[in-house]
Design a protein that fits this description.
With about 600 residues, the chain is an alpha/beta fold. It has helices at about 5-30, 35-55, 60-75, 165-175, 235-240, 250-255, 260-265, 275-290, 305-315, 345-360, 365-370, 375-380, 400-405, 420-430, 440-445, 450-460, 460-495, 520, 535-555, 595-605; strands spanning about 100-105, 110-115, 120-125, 150, 200-205, 210-215, 245, 295-305, 325-330, 345, 385-390, 410-415, 495-505, 575-580, 585.
């Protein structure tokens, strides 16, 4: 090798090796695969560098051997760089202690104790029969009794859902975290099955009686999610004297598939709301078993975030859920609006999609569809992410239910985060960010020329300063804030006590993005595996928010000793509770945009351009 060649080699090769190593570390870390894959890849990488240096003076084809070998080894190893599937313990520590045996209506269960022995945790308690075989796309069937003691030390199977590639999940986490910390610990994937109708229960250890119950419904666009998500951990809630129950339900094509033939075979004429019916069945189970686990069936609060919050607003509207709960908490979604922007669709639209899915699967009957493997159905190109007006679970549109004062809750706590829509808008325009030159065209696409212009005029100063953020805010209001504004006003008109909030606390993790508040309201900031992303101010806010949430579950009023006063919402001043670095009342920041959205929806309905 010439002198010039040696200089080029010793400059370019270390740099190339460094960036390849960094890229592989990034990939393997973001993929959350087994540590052994990382070790083998690291050995192969070091071997490549060593041999390449040893052969630096040989012919090109010899020098290429270590590089080619490394590429081949990587091609074999990298597909295995994904989480293993493993049952997940309901206790977040090593060698957990078993709980006492708990007698329930259907049989005995035994779970685990929290590390401090103050909370009993029971995971994977079935509340209905597995919706498999002939029970696929049928109303849930109450669980029959079992013999012996059922092991409830792990979370049950997740509902069937499409998993994002682990690398994509890692990239999302990287973007949301705003910083990168290497995590070589493998985060296992929970098993997935149609046999998923179960719940997890957290209760104070020992004998308890007549405690309030908080029933939580996870989010995930009605297509994904699980009761095992660490931010939902109910240990801290239980320590406040509130029993927490987290339910799982059918998702996607298994939970919200609709078809005219299914409506015909149902004794209730229902189709398209199987996931919602699962939630109602779970509430029935909680009511029947409350006395067994020390809860008060007359003091149940339902809560949910995102699609879980949409589900809460649907349960508040369902005649089947009347009397099954007392209060409701809704975070970051609602379908109590004249035209819901997501999570709700007309029955004819739902059934039309069902017909297309049957054609896609090359089936001629429901019987044939029921015989298909779950994985085959999961491959459908059609997204079933919305409830519908089935005439059974929902007899009227939720908006009309509230209009007629037939809603089910007596008190409502609801609100939203600052950057709700960012996670949905940004990926859509990832390669072409919104700016002053293209924002009008994009607003016209979502609204129309008239309303795009009106919104632009309203947001003129914000667009001039930062069109990217202004665009995201507009859609946050349209998709999230406005439905909560509508839900609040309709509930007030129906005589419901309403508490409203906006979550504004930024941090080094999800901050004020969609779902960023969850870890706070369940008191889990201090227990987060990502503690380095939070500081003392986050821990303090989490204590406040958990107190608000649990106080509301106890009495219907979030206020308590040593807490900033949270007033009932009053439309005369439109003040909502800010939950952030400041905790106190602020005027709703989006009052000027709400009327435009109301007008846009009304006009479209009148013109019958919105179904």
């Amino acid at each position: 090798m010439s002198k010039a060649g040696r200089i080029i080699f010793w400059i370019s090769f270390p740099l190339t090796a460094f960036f390849v190593g960094l890229l592989l570390t990034f990939y393997l870390d973001m993929s959350n695969g087994p540590l052994v894959i990382f070790i083998l890849e690291f050995i192969a990488f070091v071997a490549m560098i060593t041999v390449r240096i040893m052969y630096r003076n040989h012919r090109f084809w010899i020098r290429a051997i270590p590089t080619i070998s490394f590429v081949l080894v990587s091609a074999i190893l990298l597909p295995f760089a994904r989480p293993s599937i493993k049952e997940k313990s309901v206790a977040y520590y090593q060698n957990p202690s078993k709980s006492e045996v708990l007698q329930l209506e259907n049989g005995k269960v035994q779970g685990l104790l929290s590390e401090d022995k103050k909370v009993e945790i029971y995971g994977g308690i079935p509340y209905a029969e597995a919706p498999i075989g002939d029970l696929r796309w049928k109303e849930p069937v109450a669980k029959t009794n079992w013999d012996g003691v059922r092991d409830c030390s792990t979370f049950s199977n997740r509902a069937m859902q499409k998993d994002q590639p682990p690398l994509i999940n890692g990239l999302v986490d990287l973007y949301a975290a705003k910083s990168w910390h290497i995590d070589l610990k493998e985060h296992y994937l929970q098993p997935m099955s149609e046999d998923c109708l179960s719940l997890t229960l957290w209760k104070p250890a020992g004998e308890v009686k007549d405690l309030p119950i908080l029933v939580y419904i996870h989010g995930g666009s009605l297509t994904s999610g699980s009761a095992s998500y660490e931010d939902y951990n109910g240990e801290e809630v239980a320590k406040q004297g509130v029993i927490m129950v987290n339910i799982q339900y059918r998702l996607g094509v298994f939970g919200y598939f609709a078809h005219p033939d299914l409506a015909k075979e149902s004794p209730h004429g229902t189709t398209g709301n199987y996931g919602l019916l699962d939630q109602i069945e779970a509430l029935k189970w909680v009511n029947k078993n409350a006395s067994y686990f020390g809860g008060d069936k007359n003091n149940i609060t339902i809560a949910g975030e995102s699609a879980g919050s949409s589900s809460v607003s649907a349960l508040c509207s369902s005649p089947l859920a009347k009397g099954l709960f007392k209060r409701a908490i809704g975070e970051s979604s609602s379908i109590v609006v004249k035209k819901a922007p997501h999570t709700y669709r007309p029955i004819l639209e739902a059934e039309a999609m069902g017909v297309k899915i049957m054609e896609e699967m090359k089936c001629s009957s429901i019987e044939e569809l029921r015989k298909l493997p779950a994985e085959k159905l999961l491959s459908t190109n059609y997204v079933n992410s919305a409830m519908t007006l089935d005439g059974y679970a929902l007899e009227e549109d939720p908006y009309d239910v509230y209009l007629h004062h037939n809603n089910n809750e007596e008190a409502l706590l609801n609100g939203f985060n600052v950057k709700e829509a960012d996670a949905f808008v940004i990926p859509t325009y990832l390669l072409s960010p919104t700016n002053k030159d293209n924002i009008h065209e994009r607003l016209v696409k979502a609204f129309n020329e008239e309303y795009a212009t009106k919104i632009e005029n309203l947001y003129k100063d914000k667009i001039e300063k930062d069109a990217f953020s202004a665009f995201n805010e507009i859609f946050s209001v349209y998709w999230f804030m406005h439905p909560h504004y509508s839900w609040t006003n309709m509930a007030l008109d129906a005589g419901v006590n309403v508490y409203r909030y906006q979550f504004t606390k930024d941090n080094n993790f999800y901050g004020t993005y969609h779902s960023g508040e969850l870890i706070y309201c369940f008191g889990n900031v201090k227990n987060s595996p990502y503690k380095y992303r939070y500081d003392e101010s986050d821990v303090n806010l989490s204590k406040i928010m958990m107190s608000y949430w649990t106080n509301f579950a106890k009495t219907g009023n979030p206020n308590g000793d040593n807490l900033p006063t949270w007033n009932l919402f009053d439309p005369s001043d439109n003040k909502i509770m800010e939950l952030g670095s400041n905790v106190g009342p602020i005027v709703d920041p989006y009052l000027d945009l709400y009327p435009l959205i109301d007008s846009f929806i009304e006009e479209k309905i009148q013109n019958k351009t919105i179904n």
